[in-house]
Amino acid sequence: MSETLTGQALLHSPTFNRGSAFAEADRARLGLEGMLPPVADTLETQIARVHLQLETLDNDLQKYLLLSDLQARNETLYYAVLQSDPATFMPLVYTPTVGEACQKFDHVLRASRGMYLPITAKGRLKSILANWPQKDVRFIVVTDGERILGLGDLGVNGMGIPVGKLALYTVCAGVPPELTLPITLDVGTNNPLYLDDPLYLGLRQNRVRGAEYDAFIEEFVTAITELYPKCCLQWEDFANINAVPILERYKDRTCTYNDDIQGTAAVAVAGIYGALRISKEKLTDQTFLFLGGGSAATGIAELISEAMVLEGLTIEEGHARNWLFDINGLMVKSRTDLADFQKPFAHDHAACTSFVEAIEQIKPTAIIGVSTVPKLFNQAVIEAMSRINARPVIFPYSNPTSRSECTAEEAYKWSAGQAIFASGSPFQPVTLGDKTFVPGQGNNVYIFPAMGMAVLATQATRVTQDMFIVAAQAVAELVTQEDLDKGLIYPPQNDIRKASLHVAARIAERIYDKGLARVPRPDDIAAHIEAMAYQPAYPKV
């Protein structure tokens, strides 16, 4: 504990405050006598009290705000509460609740967290970042707020995403919270609701584009690599026009990745591996049709193709088994509106503007929704998939729940219980007749916290594509036959810490094998990672 913190300053330090759990014997020397109720709590009692407080609240946004307030005043208790029941609390601190929290961020703001870098501060980013008190930052999640989940341009209100993501780095994989830094880059917003809102906290200007934007990103990355040379930079919720070029520009220069592109791809591939264990089929025999043609779709399609290469196909053959369908229909070579990153998945085929007709013509074994448009996997779509597949794979991955392409109940009902289902948002179990199905959630939480812990443990210099395939394989390994019998193709989230550490160890092995680690390889990588993992406990005083 810092020797300079006593009294009110100590009670207002989220890192060192323990609230009512300060021992009676410590209160006099720390200047806390009279400032707390006389009976000292245990951490376990405090956790129970927070559970009780949450039970009295009417909706998930209120619960999100209570937990945010707790994080701002007592980090140890915050993480102890989340770890006490991760399956319950992850949807409260991240998707789907974080979507509503971001939409209303400027109206419900309490304590500020992380750093905001406005484009009006260009030329001074390094000096501003130097204001952050922690000088050994290992993980930054950064957004420019343009494409928050499926909700669109939320400007600086998107800060809830980096904050939530980094909390899950800690809860799921044990990355120490003091090593993390959430950042929002404010380059303006094109959302008139916020530009006209007197409570909006960001720059009141339209988004900066082009060379000025690129120079701002370059200055930011340069500042980060100079100030925090061991840092891993995760890009989050950037629009396609920026997400793909940024990743291409920096992936070979520094330790960085884009979770929307690569993390989403890895969790999708993990679900595919799980689905194949149910259908008893080979990956190289599958055909995938995506509803949505942005960076998430192409990221998944590329990782599927690379996984197929590992099983004997060429990359071109892998690309040929992945099809994209967007607002203008099936992506075929004759179209003139395709971006470069979409062209590997544009094939020789007649134009088609009906998704159901595309299914009937291409005969995919799986459909993957990354459109952010709800209800597009309608009854006709599910029934078409069921006609051509004994076990159709239905993955509506768009977030939050309000944007899901279909619900679990719809998928199971319209497929007569034959669908192999996973979604981006959580759904409750579904009972049809005498059988109950437990829908899986293809949540990136299975990937990015583990990637973070692997990078931390190895001090990796780069994050590479094959590390995401390893992560997907490691997630699929954790699915038991009992899980599969219930239709569950992802491991249960109630044991996410164990799952994340397993995945982290597998990724770390690949990092060492590729010579990307900055530290010597330990004899037992899994034990080394487990020993490093943060556990919420009050520091000695």
Provide a descriptive summary of the structure in words.
- With 541 residues, the chain is α/β, with parallel strands linked by helices.
- Among the domains are: 7-91, Up-down Bundle (Hemocyanin, N-terminal domain); 92-254, Rossmann fold (3-Layer(aba) Sandwich), CATH 3.40.50; 446-532, Rossmann fold (3-Layer(aba) Sandwich).
- It is 44% helix and 10% strand.
- The strands form three sheets. It has a seven-stranded mixed beta sheet with strand order 8-7-6-9-10-11-14, with helices on both faces.
- Helix 3 crosses helix 5 (75-84).
- The mean pLDDT is 95.
How would you characterize the largest beta sheet?
Answer: 7 strands, mixed
Beta-strand residue percentage? 5-15%
Under CATH at level 1, the class of the domain at 92-254 stands as Alpha Beta
Q: Per CATH, what is the topology of the domain at 92-254?
A: Rossmann fold
Spans of at least 5 consecutive residues whose pLDDT stays below 50 are none
Total strand count, please? Answer: 14
Helix residue percentage: 40-55%
- What assembly state would you assign to the polypeptide chains in this entry? single chain
* CATH architecture label name of the domain at 92-254: 3-Layer(aba) Sandwich
Cα radius of gyration in angstroms = 23 Å
Overall pLDDT level: 95
Distance between the termini: 6 Å
Put simply, the count of helices is 24
The computed structural class is: alpha/beta
CATH homologous superfamily (4th level) name of the domain at 92-254: Malic enzyme, N-terminal domain
Shape: globular
Strand order of the largest sheet: 8-7-6-9-10-11-14
